[in-house]
Amino acid sequence: MLMKFGDLQSAERIFDSIKKKDIIIYSAMIK
C-alpha cells in the first residue's frame, strides 16, 4: 500500500516493526 505512493522507507520501517509477517502483510505492502 505504501509502496505505490513511493514511500519505500516508511514501508520498510512499518514492515520491520511487524513481528508476525504473513501473506496478507506482504500483499498489503506491495499493493
Shape: flat
Beta-strand share of residues: under 5%
Could you spell the SSE succession in H and E letters?
HH
Distance between the termini: 5 Å
Q: What profile does the largest beta sheet have?
A: none
Spans of at least 5 consecutive residues whose pLDDT stays below 50 are: none
Mean pLDDT: 70
Tell how many strands the DSSP assignment holds.
0
Give me the secondary-structure category: mainly alpha
Describe what you observe in this structure:
With 31 residues, this protein is mainly α. Helices cover 58% and strands 0% of the residues. It has helices at residues 8-17, 23-30. The longest helix is centred in the middle third of the chain and has 10 residues, at 8-17. The relative contact order is 0.26. The mean pLDDT is 70.
SSE arrangement:
Elements: H1 8-17, H2 23-30
